[in-house]
Amino acid sequence: MEDFCKSSLFYSDQHLCYAEILPPSEVRARIEVAVLNFLRTLISPNPSISSLPLINRRSNNRRVSHGLLTDVSSIFLSHSFCARSLMKANATKAFVRVWKVMEICIELLVHEKKVTQRELFYKLLCSSPDYFTSQLQVNKTIQDVVAFLRCSRYSLGIMASSRGALIGRLFLQEPNQEIVDCSTCGSSGHAITGDLNSLENLVIKSDARYIIVVEKHAIFQRLAEDRIFNQIPSIIITAKGYPDIATRVLLHRLTRALPDLPIFALVDWNPSGLAILCTFKFGSITMGLEAYKYACNVRWLGMRGCDLHLIPEQSFIPLKPWDLQIAQSLMSSEMLQENYREELTLMVQSGQRAEIESLHFHGYDFLGKYIATKIVQSDYI
Amino acid sequence: MDGIVRVVFQNFELKSTSPIIRTNAGEEMSRRGSSSNPCDLLKKIKEFTRCLLEDLRRGRSPSVTLNRYRIYCTDPSGKCCCSSDLHMGKEIVSLQKECHAYRLDVLLRVLLIIQQLLQENRHGSKRDIYYMHPAVFSEQAVVDRAINDICILLECSRHNLNVVAVGKGLVMGWLKFFEAGKKFDCINSPSKAHPVPVFVEEVEGIVSVAQYILIVEKEAVFQRLADDRFCDTNNCIVITGRGYPDVPTRRFLRLLIENLCLPVYCLVDCDPYGFDILTTYRFGSMQMAYDAKFLRVPEIRWLGAFPSDSKKYGLPERCLLPLTAGDMKKAEAMLLRCYLQREAPKWRSELEMMMQRGVKFEIEALSASSISFLAEKYIPSKIQGGGYI
């Protein structure tokens, strides 16, 4: 283990490992260092190809840090390493794949271009057909590069689309752009840019008292149309499903700029909804390295077990096998707090799930009243 | 067919002041715009309900006649009348049959909810409506059919009923417009994406200096063009439906074409699904067949990707993926559509060529040799060189 620690080129003294968003020059420097290091071992008196030390992404290396002074807990990966070794016959190709991807990344960084993972697949398919045959291999190799260089995919030049939108009592200003008043945005809200660098440098001004994170686009549109953010002074944000990195970065930025605002989540009552909430709260379970920095203290406002009496029996839908799988993986992670665990158990036991739209049974006004009541009564966990 | 369209209630004649009856097709189309505002729709709903009540009062079994619409059939003789925008027969829903009784029950409940939406000037989604009476509506599809039936009955489009969905489309380029008073000015940053407005009827003041409109199938391609700053160097508007286009995207596209009269090009993957999306833009979808004439874009031209492009632009063999059994089945079904032979024979031959070669490829494959190939070479050369059909 000691040797592995030493052989990691970056941050070998830290137990907590994460992937940063770095400027292109820094990423190029890291790749160059990696190459030089590799060449050095080749020309040394006893040449031996070392294994590539990558942060172990398996669940046994996942840890949760509980904030001491804050209520923020987050997932991170510890410094346990696994190796991509050239010596093992079946792992040779995996070793070479990492270098092939880094080769393309350097090219992208030099030309200041970005690609999607699919485009990267086609490029690799043409340039190195012996090593890459499927999109899955490319995705895994990208994760390997992230684990090796400790920088995020975005820094390597891999585009990610941003699906998020927000609306509410907020003034945003991107550097050198006009001020955007997010309360006059129309029912589709203000689209969150995928440019993570500009998100980090946003100027934020707001008189809202709460931040409400909404799972589904349909609910976002309903709240936007009803202008809930004027009745309950708030900022409403959605990632339209599982949160992408841009939405998480923005939410994190909002909490830093407006630290007194509590964040409430409005998700469907099913394991996916809870998983989405947990991703905002702790970080992504699968993207351990990119998770850490953007965890926020999100509280579960609804729908919860205590609200189920509000909807008629026929509005419940049976859980699918996929839901049960998600429930199982959530249960097995140690970061899930006790009260969330109880809710999850209730979901699985009842075998049913419910959508937020089912509250419309009581009329279109009901959703706004439901949210307001819950906030006022501090009914969140 | 003399093109008379009317809604007939069994044993009942509507008063001639009602705008629905005894108008010929041409008048009906121009009247559609005027008789689709909320006041007129509410009047129509009242009239419809009154007729049903009359029937019940007189001890007659009420029934509703609905027109059936379709945009294509599989008749190879070319003698079908799918190209006219008229209905293909009628369907009579009455209380005589039990399944019809359920359908009528659902229709009336949904009509009540829609009446409320119109009266309160609120919008709702199809899902919201489903949840209002989950005990009666056994599943979402039941509500969807009722909404379609009501659109046919009241001779309006779905958005006139204040039933909306979330917006999926994105637009960028040399375009400026107002949506409910708020200005969307893409001109200052032409490579910045804006969501396509959902309430298309509130869009006004469209101004543009673009020379053409480019539709792309996938969001990934849209982002590639945004990242390459395609609109900075090419004077155009780029729009994507992110897969099968939703109704707001199609309506917005129609609005742009009607206001700006620009050529429209479409860029899809060279596979059966890409082709299906292309035909959806051009001819419309079966689901919204009753509204097809307001949603389709007959002026659209297929820019790419063609099966022949793979050789012409030197696409490596490895990037060609084999057509699956599902792909072949879909392609065969599409070949039978009557409108292809009649109105787009060149499109049909390209589809046949695709099936013969047994391979497909994605637009992203064109970037394999050079990232900016799509934005810098492929699209401009095709447009200037007339490489579209």
From TrEMBL, chain A:
Domain Spo11/DNA topoisomerase VI subunit A N-terminal residues, every copy: 94-158
Cofactor(s) required for function per UniProt: Mg(2+)
Boundaries of every Topoisomerase 6 subunit A/Spo11 TOPRIM domain copy: 210-375
GO BP: DNA metabolic process
Keywords for this protein: DNA-binding, Isomerase, Magnesium, Metal-binding, Topoisomerase
Catalytic residue positions: Y122 (o-(5'-phospho-dna)-tyrosine intermediate)
Catalytic activity entry: ATP-dependent breakage, passage and rejoining of double-stranded DNA
Family matches, as SUPFAM superfamilies: DNA topoisomerase IV, alpha subunit
Stored CDD domains: TOPRIM_TopoIIB_SPO (cd00223)
Its EC number(s): 5.6.2.2
One cellular component (GO) term of this entry: chromosome
Source taxon at top rank: Eukaryota
Keyword Metal-binding: yes
GO molecular function, one term: ATP binding
Similarity comment: family membership: Belongs to the TOP6A family.
Name of the protein described by the UniProt record: DNA topoisomerase (ATP-hydrolyzing)
Organism in which the protein naturally occurs: Nelumbo nucifera
Automatic annotation (TrEMBL), chain B:
Predominant localisation class: nucleus
One BP term from GO: meiotic DNA double-strand break formation
Segments forming domain Topoisomerase 6 subunit A/Spo11 TOPRIM: 212-383
Cellular-component GO terms for this entry: nuclear chromosome
Protein name: DNA topoisomerase (ATP-hydrolyzing)
DNA-binding in keyword set: yes
Domain Spo11/DNA topoisomerase VI subunit A N-terminal: 103-163
Active site residues of this protein: Y131 (o-(5'-phospho-dna)-tyrosine intermediate)
CDD domains named among the record's database cross-references: TOPRIM_TopoIIB_SPO
UniProt-listed InterPro entries: Meiotic_Spo11, Spo11/TopoVI_A, Spo11/TopoVI_A_N, Spo11/TopoVI_A_sf, TOPRIM_Topo6A/Spo11, WH-like_DNA-bd_sf
Species this protein is from: Nelumbo nucifera
Catalytic activity: ATP-dependent breakage, passage and rejoining of double-stranded DNA
